[in-house]
Design goal:
Its main location: membrane. This is UPF0344 protein KHA99_06915. Belongs to the UPF0344 family. InterPro entries: UPF0344. The chain is an all-alpha fold. The protein has one domain. Helices cover 82% and strands 0% of the residues. Helix 3 packs antiparallel against helix 4. It is elongated, with a radius of gyration of 15 Å. The two termini are 13 Å apart.
Amino acid sequence: MIHGHVTAWALALILFFVALSLHSSGKAKAAKIVQMILRVLYLVIIATGVGLLFMLSNISVLYILKAVVGLWIIGLFEMILSRATAKRKTSVFWIQFVIAWALVLYLGFVELPMSILNP
């Protein structure tokens, strides 16, 4: 289940940047299609994340924090894409994205015991 979760968020990250580049190049229809696929991946990410939480026998506060930050990242994906489409300022959301991404990677790969690096 962990590998499915990591694959889903890695694909989501790639599609996020593809959608941004399509928006910036003026291909609105293609960007909308990629954004819809991205939204389906959000559901996969959430479903696999919830599945991982239910696999735990002892859920610590750090797992809850990681889940909340993961949802925050999904919200930031949507905010950045919607503001980029409307050609509005996104710098505050990019700063939040970098902080949240670093935190979720740290929690997922270093701190928490159920990670790919800590089998």
